[in-house]
């Protein structure tokens, strides 16, 4: 497939950006009446340039006027190579500098310089302008790149410029088409006969006809009716293309520039990001901590605030540091996204940087020591670091492969391979293979210790119970921990031989119920007292008096003996010894086999008890599914084969 490259212009007002695009492509990208009247660019202009080699570039022409820097930033988002336009008769001017700085902050990696209006200057003037430019680009990504004198009026220098563009386009990087599709919208319009069209630069992934996409933050989910790339209808568009998308079932008024078009259901809104931030050397003054600013991200701009992670009152011009940017309206960033910060009252560009945590927790000074080494690692933008961080941040919440792909701006295969490698290394654990959900090994360790602590506590306070009911254990753990992770960790602890699971209870393997001599004595007394009165044993209250054992302790012992199958719990306050109850049970069965049914009154006679006992006993036999209640009678329950 043909390489996809987008070229953008940059430079001071009136330096000949639009004229140069026209000289190269034959297209006047200043379409608005106002633009034509005033002779300046206001909105972004778009066209394409077929190069002699056959490579076809998408072109974005930006306005130079300082009032329209917002549009310039939106246009420069997503460009791969920049032509910095400097008029030879004026040389470097304020927006030449500002645009270059914005390109640097946006991470544009390559480009060249067009020294325009060559026809208006003599050799000497041209040499002066050239010096000017050389000073400007020193130490930037444009250092060492071609500086081509050109005249859009006479066409002189055009060939050399095309050659330089070709060369640059070859070395421009290619965007990944395997990630999740994302396109910041830079234009919305209606086309007669088609309906709503949005345009932008597809930053990652692919878009295809008939797909349902999502517009964020509005959340609308229209269907793609048509796609155009370079003015041609296509079935799909890949990352790195200037793309026009015709949307079905949505009004133009429902979408605005700044929103993003993306694969549906993949991005959650973010109000806070952690980033590396550079304060421009040309910023008018030190940037105070917590300053309210305009944040430009993609084609969007939102109010926000910048908080430095280091304890500094302000950041000096020219410095770089860690910052948290909080925004007042949602954005949908991924790791590695760039942003620009401007002072909305003075219209100055203050700085910008790289988003490293796209969905950050509110920063507190106590987070600094744990956070900064991660941010440092994330600068590499290596998939391994991105995944480790995203999973670490979720703690015991876990993270699905799907989330990792979206937030980490990763390809599906790349993410899967990296996760598997991290599992192999023992850093991650896949606790839910069905959902491809991961958690950090240290989070599993932490959860294990917590479970062991809870079990030990339980054994301490309930020494006569053989284990903690699983439900009780779950309710003591935070709801944010997925059930599957609890089950996974319990399984892991069992495998390691630290806990044992019996039916619905879990215990530490070393836990055993020990009766003290006093307990043994009490056990003897209880059994004796219960046996003494046959089918009418003392209730718990009576037992308390008979044995002299306090209620709580007595109940604990009774529950324990029931668990050991030495007693049978018939009601909350009623326990029977096994021989007595088994005898009664067989008498009941015999009766039912002979007579087919029994009334409560007959059972009273059969069991030689009073009403106090008959009701709990009958209910007990119902409960163990020996009998079935039919009106006021009991019959034998059919035994299932
Ligand atoms: N003689 C001469 N004039 C030029 C050349 N390039 C541009 N111009 C003129 O300079 C003026 C400004 O050119 P534009 O192309 O509109 O400048 P721009 O950089 O696009 O301006 P903005 O978009 O408003 O920032 C126009 O009148 C052009 O005709 C050139 O190479 N030679
Ligand atoms: Mg222009």
How is this structure best summarized?
The chain has 641 residues and is α+β, with helices and mostly antiparallel strands. Helices cover 35% and strands 28% of the residues. The chain contains 19 helices and 34 strands.
Task: Determine the mean pLDDT.
Answer: 93
| Low-confidence segments | none
Strand % is: 25-35%
Based on CA atoms alone, the radius of gyration comes out at 38 Å
Report the biggest beta sheet as strand number plus sense, adding barrel if it closes: 7 strands, antiparallel
Q: How widely separated are the two ends?
A: 67 Å
The ligands found in this model are: guanosine-5'-triphosphate, magnesium ion
Query: In oligomeric terms, what are we looking at?
Result: single chain
What overall geometry do the principal axes of the alpha carbons give?
elongated
Number of strands: 34
Please give the share of residues in helix.
Answer: 25-40%
Number of helices: 19
Strand arrangement across the biggest beta sheet: 10-15-7-8-14-11-12
**Class computed from helices, strands and strand pairing:** alpha+beta
Explain the overall architecture.
The protein is 35% helix and 28% strand. It is α+β, with helices and mostly antiparallel strands. The longest helix is centred in the C-terminal third of the chain and has 21 residues, at 441-461. Residues 17-18, 41, 61, 63 line the site of magnesium ion.
